[in-house]
Amino acid sequence: MNIKQNYWKTNLKYLVVLLLVWFTVSFGFGILLVDQLNKIRFGGFKLGFWFAQQGAIYVFVILIFVYIYLMNSLDKKFKDEK
């Protein structure tokens, strides 16, 4: 494989992993597991409710910064390989 193919393969791998994390938090924790998580309190609120209302948004913003970091590292790595 050439450099461009390796770059995009790695980029897609990052995207898939980060989107799976976001899906798990937003859909899994906020909808599917809400009843089990509501048994736990976080900041005075039920944890399932918190994930549905706030947690998924916080995780999404954190994932944006993680993606920025990963892509900067990937760009640096592939820039050095040219």
Strand order of the largest sheet: 1-2
Continuous helix count: 3
Most strands sheet: 2 strands, antiparallel
Number of domains: 1
Mean pLDDT: 91
Number of strands: 2
Helical residue percent band? over 70%
The end-to-end distance, rounded to whole angstroms, is 14 Å
Radius of gyration: 17 Å
- Helix and strand content put the structural class at mainly alpha
- Overall shape: elongated
pLDDT < 50 runs, ≥5 residues: none
What share of residues are in beta strands?
under 5%
Give the SSE order as H and E letters: HHEEH
Task: List key phrases describing it.
mainly alpha, two-stranded antiparallel ribbon, 3 helices, elongated
Concise overview:
This protein is mainly alpha-helical.
What is the strand and helix layout of this fold?
Elements: H1 3-32, H2 34-37, E1 41-42, E2 45-46, H3 47-81
Antiparallel strand pairs: 1-2
Can you describe this structure?
This protein is mainly alpha-helical. The protein has one domain. 84% of the residues lie in helices and 5% in strands. It has a two-stranded antiparallel sheet with strand order 1-2. The chain is elongated.
